[in-house]
Amino acid sequence: MASELDFSPPEVPEPTFLENLLRYGLFLGAIFQLICVLAIIIPVPKSHEADAEPSEPRSAEVMRKPKATAPSANKRPKKEAKKKR
């Protein structure tokens, strides 16, 4: 009975290149997802210097007033009163 039992490891074929690529690609995808979830959960404090720089060009844009455009020819002016029936 002891001679009938075979305790040798089962024969498992070596993974192919595509199987390895898929395996490591899935690991990299999981790591990327964890980084994205952590970026959402953990807030990053904003520095005051970064906030000050974008506000300066905005204030320059606010100082410039947009030119008033004349009503285009294809648009009809709104009627003042409704027609009576």
TrEMBL record:
The record's InterPro entries line, in alphabetical order, gives: UPF0239
**Topologically, how does it sit relative to the membrane?**
Single-pass membrane protein
Localization (cell) = Membrane
Q: Name one Pfam family in it.
A: UPF0239
Q: Which UniProt keywords apply?
A: Membrane, Transmembrane, Transmembrane helix
Q: Where is the composition biased (Basic residues)?
A: 75-85
Protein name, UniProt field: Protein MANBAL
**What high-level taxonomic lineage is stated for the organism?**
Eukaryota, Metazoa, Chordata, Craniata, Vertebrata
